[in-house]
Amino acid sequence: MSRIDTFTTIITTLNRKRKVRVYIPTDYNESNKYYDVLYMHDGHNLFNKTSSGFGEIWDAHVALDDFYAKHKTSIILVGIDCDNKHRFDEYSPWKSNNVDQFISYLNLGESGGEGQLYLDWLVNELIVKINMKYRTTKVNYLAGSSMGGFISLYAGYKYPNIFKKIGAISSAIWFEKKALIKHIKDNFNPNVDIYLDVGTKEGINNQYVSDTYLQDTIDIANLLERLGCNNLKLIIVEDAVHSEQAWKKRFPKFVEWLLLK
């Protein structure tokens, strides 16, 4: 039976406490197998409704249990909770003034700029800790939604030798699109596998937001195709909105892409 381990640690580069949730697969205690590891942002939204920011979750553990039952293939998933106050700061290496244009009620002004510090901790400390604590193959993947997709795309080309595959789901590319495109062009590696998906109604009743999410994702997919990405997947989901419920429906397809060789 699978389980969720939890522990609290310090993001030393930012001096902030953080809860980490680790999905341990069904067959972990039944063998001496070693497992690839998927790291995901916004870990509080993955497994438990009581910790979810909006009351809904991905049910990632259910999807992974179902995948193992069908394919006898499993993985460790490490979910890193976000800091509600600093989420935009931690999930972008660049500062931006674009948030209020898309989410005006937050009234954030300038945000972002701490993403590299967050990733320095993830790569140099958290991955090391997970590799020491669990039986891992040291093959790592990274994924997230919205701003989590944005920072995952950045990380894929910042650390191509660390993260083999990247999942960018409903990515908030608008946060700093020009900087992200330049980063991808300057650091492109064809061997980084990329999964992109987006709904056609990400903005729900805001057509401008919906159109932006859709076109930005298509633009990144076209860029990666032109550059020569060896394994690129783009999925456009009609009428899908920007929510955990929508991502829950798409997560099994992402897992299939990730784990079926």
Radius of gyration, whole Å? 17 Å
Tally the beta strands: 10
**Main sheet makeup:** 8 strands, mixed
CATH superfamily: Alpha/Beta hydrolase fold, catalytic domain
Query: Could you give the distance between the termini?
Result: 24 Å
Q: Any low-confidence stretches, pLDDT <50, length ≥5?
A: none
> What is the class in the CATH system?
Alpha Beta
Q: Determine the structural class based on helices, strands and strand pairing.
A: alpha/beta
Structural domains: how many: 1
Question: If you had to describe this structure to a student in words, what would you say it looks like?
Answer:
The chain has 261 residues and is an alpha/beta fold. It has one domain: Alpha/Beta hydrolase fold, catalytic domain (Rossmann fold), CATH 3.40.50. It has 8 helices and 10 strands. An 8-stranded mixed beta sheet has the order 1-2-4-3-7-8-9-10, with helices on both faces. A two-stranded antiparallel sheet has the order 5-6. Helix 1 (60-71) packs parallel to helix 8, helix 5 (147-158) packs parallel to helix 6 (177-187) and helix 6 (177-187) packs parallel to helix 7 (207-227). The mean pLDDT is 95.
Produce the secondary structure layout.
Elements: E1 3-11, E2 16-24, E3 35-41, H1 60-71, E4 76-80, H2 87-90, E5 95-96, H3 99-102, E6 111-112, H4 115-133, E7 136-145, H5 147-158, E8 163-169, H6 177-187, E9 193-199, H7 207-227, E10 232-237, H8 244-259
Parallel strand pairs: 3-4, 3-7, 7-8, 8-9, 9-10
Antiparallel strand pairs: 1-2, 2-4, 5-6
Search tags:
261 residues, alpha/beta, Rossmann fold, 25% strand, globular
